[in-house]
Amino acid sequence: MKPSSSLSNDQKLKICHHKAANPSIKQSALANWAMQEFKLSKVPTQGTISNILAKRQQYESMDSTELTSKRQRAVKHPELDNVLANWVLQCQARRVALSGDLIKEKARQFARQLELGERTPEFSNGWLAKFNIRHGFKAQKSYGESGSADLDAIDRNMPTIKEKLQSYSLQDIYNMDETGLFYRMAPDRTIARRQIEGSKKDKTRLTFVFAANADGSHKMEPLIIGHAQRPRAFNRKSGEQLGFCYRSNAKAWMTGLIFREWLQKMDQQMQDANRKVLLLLDNAPSHVVRDLPLTNVQVFLFPASTTSKIQPMDAGIIAAFKRRYRRFQLQDAIDRDEQQKADIYKVDQLIAMKWAKAAWNDISSKTIANCFKHTGLFERETQKNEVGSEEQDIENELKDAINQLPISRPMSVHELINPEEEQQVAHEEISDEDLIKLSSSQDQEEEEDGEVMDENPPMSTKEKLNVLHSCISFLDLSNPNHVIAHKVLRNIQFEIRTIEKKQTTLDRYFCKEY
Predict the structure, then answer these.
(1) Measured CA distances, 71 to 7, 12, 30, 58, 67 (Å)
(2) Residue 41 near residue 3 (C-beta atoms within 8 A)
(3) What is the DSSP code string of 116-150?
(4) Closest alpha carbon to 59 in 21, 12, 19, 18
(5) Which listed site, 26, 191, 426, 454, has its alpha carbon 20 to 30 Å from 151?
(6) Shortest CA distance to 206 belongs to which of 235, 247, 238, 240?
(7) In what order do the strands lie in the sheet with 277-281?
(8) Would you state the pLDDT for residue 252?
(9) Alpha helices, H only, 45-99
(10) What digits encode the pLDDT tens for the residues 427-443?
């Protein structure tokens, strides 16, 4: 019998169970085990194994017919499934007691709103059981007043919280939070107000999910949530193909389902690294952890009224990101103003995402550790080095940039970094109407309006080298800053020439006449 290269759903489930029985096994070893166990023609890739493990609950919800298939049976009504799951998660966040009958009744209501008509499921007990298994929802229980009582108890016993943190090393304590970003917002009070009010229409807002540990040694890759699955600026590629962790929905909001996917992936990363970590979270409506089978991440939810005071991301980390993003944006706006462009703040989503990724990567471990320290959660020092001067230097750069721009009513740097609306859109509870809109946009491919492609055409290798040569010729090597710039530009020059040489060699090889 010829070895197969594909896996059935039953085999994928067995891979999940083997991982559960051997939690310390690496994904590479798990892939080798799968090849030998199922007599595959090749070793599954790390990405394949990671995706299989992330979908364990889906495989466990399958019947015998689905398990023998090599294709996962698609949910018949994915829009209904998504909107109902997000509604259940929001109810859990509010400590609302849900019965099976109530979930089925809500499903019928959403089905009418989605105009499923004759395609409406029967919403039987069997349907409910599969829905619950698919999303990891266990039997619903009534919580009464225990939720608020627990929060009050936590608030009264902050010393106990600190004691819990003491049981983890600083590198194993993480904080995650979301923030909105109006990525084209002008530093002009009048223009910015119009932009913010119109952001729902022109779709120039993104949501970013950031996570880092207390000593600043690990910044997780940011998750970016946009309005479209493939905006025009992506040139028909996916976010992953462009090097981003990217999700989308009509509002560019964090939802319960996106959060749970993110958290399960973090748990998988910690399993692979053989680490047990503590994750600090606020009580946002989407942060529903209940029933998730986490093995290596323990979640602690902050008291609702204290996050602005004790959450590290709110204590300066997100502000540090926004300072760096706005520096990229304003530097570009000055360039565009000198080129006499009509709208100097007009950039496409891909450029904004690249700036954001560079801004996040630029935040130092000292800055992150310092923000954790300032929360007052830690009895020990996270870092002895203060880095306020670094942030102040960037603020001074922003002030200088604002002064160089043609602005009638300039914002202060504080207004530019901390617009209240950016936080509101990241943590709003989602109405039923908006849940419908979110789920209805899952297959959206491109922005309908508001999206602007980069106006600069691609440069040839010769043009790039000529520009670099002009820049190098301008430098005064008696100036230490120019010496640093000279080294950087020469390195870029070398990279471009190396890539061109490799491409020329390939072209000659394929053009040989035999």
Answers:
(1) 9, 11, 21, 12, 9
(2) yes
(3) -GGG-----HHHHHHHHHHHT-------TTHHHHH
(4) 12
(5) 426
(6) 247
(7) 245-248, 223-226, 205-213, 173-182, 277-281, 297-301
(8) 87
(9) 46-54, 56-60, 64-68, 78-93
(10) 556 677 777 766 654 44
Q: Which residues contact 241 (CB under 8 A, 6 or more apart)?
A: none
Q: Are 210 and 195 in contact (CB under 8 A)?
A: no
Nearest Cα to 368, choosing from 180, 218, 262?
Answer: 218
Torsion of CA 319, 421, 221, 392, to 10 degrees: -10
pTM: 0.69
Q: What is the pLDDT of residue 191?
A: 65
The residues, any chain, with a CB within 8 Å of residue 217's CB and separated by 6 or more, are: 171, 365
Confidence of residue 514 (pLDDT cuts 50, 70, 90): very low
Cβ pair 123, 108 in contact under 8 A: yes
Q: Flag whether pLDDT at 100 surpasses 80.
A: no
Placement of tokens 């090393």 in the chain: 169
Tell me the C-alpha distance between 198 and 269, whole Å: 39
Provide the b/e sequence for 143-182 (b: ≥16 CB within 10 Å): eeeeeeeebeebeeeeeebeeebeebebebbbbbbbbbbb
| Half-sphere exposure of residue 117: CA atoms within 13 angstroms, side-chain side | 2
Calpha distance 61→52 (Å, rounded): 14
- Angle (CA) 220-226-232 rounded to 5° is 120
Q: What is the spatial distance between Cα 96 and Cα 151, in angstroms, rounded to a whole number?
A: 16
**pLDDT score of 323:** 95
Residue 437 makes CB contacts below 8 A (sequence gap 6+) with 250, 251
The per-residue DSSP string of 314-343 comes to GGTHHHHHHHHHHHHHHHHHHHHHHTT-S-
Q: Where are the alpha helices (DSSP H) in 220-313?
A: 256-272, 307-310
Among positive and negative, which fits the CA dihedral 138, 142, 146, 147?
A: positive
